[in-house]
Each structure stands twice: as structure tokens, then as C-alpha cells.
Amino acid sequence: MAAPSGCCRRHIERAVRDKLPWVRRKLAEMASRPPAPRRLWADGEMLPYLGTSYPLCLVPDGGAPVRLRGGRFLMEPTVAADGRRHMIAWYVAHAGPLLARRVEHFGTTVGAPPASIEVKDLGRRWGTCHADGRIRFHWQIVLFPRPVVDYIVVHELAHLLELNHSRRFWGHVEAALPEYREHKAWLKQESGPFTL
Ligand SMILES: [Zn+2]
Predict the structure, then answer these.
(1) Which backbone phi and psi does 116 adopt, to 5 degrees?
(2) Rounded CA separation 151/164 (Å)
(3) Is 59 in contact with 77 (CB distance < 8 Å)?
(4) Which CATH code of 3.10.20.520, 3.60.20.10, 3.30.2010.10, 3.50.50.60 fits the domain covering 46-189?
(5) Crossing angle, helix 146-159 and helix 180-189, to 10 degrees?
(6) Beta-strand pair 116-120/134-138
(7) CA of 139 relative to ligand 1 center, distance in Å
(8) How far is the centre of ligand 1, averaged over its atoms, from the C-alpha of 190 (Å)?
(9) Confidence label for 30 from pLDDT (cuts 50, 70 and 90)
């Protein structure tokens, strides 16, 4: 926000003072959010999938670069140096069918089947909805617990009915997921460690 030229000092001071509670709230929010974990791609490192953390185990068995088997993420030691990329490929591959099933499940309740769904890196957004009916999800959301994944699915499906965050929009979300506020709060406050 730039100060308009010719604006007197008192005006600027008042504008800053009015914004202070917002700034304080944002700073408190940032401080309360746990930092994302630092990944070393070493044995025993915990990696989340659907809200459960599984230990990473580097074992050569000539199979796929990453497998989830027997409660452990098995990774070929030869790909560990590029572990993040291989884990993301695993999450993307699993997110596609999983999200398609949840979209199908809620599509009848929320009442608007999407034209298509896509899984990709959406930066700081968990999902997006386009006016033409295309829905996109961030691969990262499959690290979260299932009920939170469902909330993100319902949120985007509800945008097919209302392309805004109006009272009507939240009404659609609540009709499908009466406890959605809990999941919304979790995303804001507790999703930090559930990142890669
Ligand atoms: Zn939204």
C-alpha cells in the first residue's frame, strides 16, 4: 500500500493506526503456525499421508522408487538425493484416484459434478475452481487427515454453485459437512507439520 502524494502526516498516521489490529493479528497467526519440517531424506524420517506419519526406510529392492508398505515408506537409496521429487511423484499418483473418488462421493450431495479435476502444485492454495467447471487440487492436500481432504473437496465443489465466499456458499459447504469449521481451523493452525 503506497501513501498517496500530498497526504498529510496525520492521515497516514491514522491509516497506520487503523491497520494495526490487523497487522498484530497476522503476526500472531504467523508466530503460532509451526514451521514446515526440514527434510533430510534419511532413514527414520517421518512422512505424512492422510494424516498419519510413516517412517522413511531406504532399502534397495529394485522396485518403484517409492512404495508405502507395511507401515513404512520404502525408498530406493539411489533416488534419496532427489527424495523430494520422488515423494511428490508418489503423492501426485495417489492423490489423483483418491480425490476422484471423494469428488464422486460428494458430487451428489453438493450437487454439481465438475467438468474435470486435476492434481498439481498450486503454491499456497489448496484448491481452485474455474467458472467453466474445472477443479484443481494441490497434491500436498493428501498429507492432511481424510476429513480435512473432504473439506477441501467440498469447498471446491461448492464453488461450482457459488463462485464466491458468500453466506450461500458456506451454506452449501455446511449442508455437506456440518463440522467444516473444525477442518477450516485445522488448515489454518495445524497443517504446518503436514508438509513436505
Ligand atoms: Zn474458496
Answers:
(1) -160, 160
(2) 16
(3) yes
(4) 3.30.2010.10
(5) 110
(6) parallel
(7) 17
(8) 19
(9) low
pLDDT tens digits, one per residue of 33-50 = 556 678 999 999 999 999
| Distance of CA 166 from the midpoint of ligand 1 (Å) | 10
Gap between the Cα atoms of 143 and 154, Å rounded: 17
**DSSP string spanning 62-117?**
SS-SEEEETTEEEE-GGGGGGHHHHHHHHHHHHHHHHHHHHHHHHHHHHT---SEE
How many whole angstroms from 165 Cα to the centroid of ligand 1?
A: 6
Q: How far is the CA of 38 from the centre of ligand 1 (A)?
A: 29
Q: How far is the CA of 164 from the centre of ligand 1 (A)?
A: 7
Write out the three cell numbers for 109.
Answer: 450431495
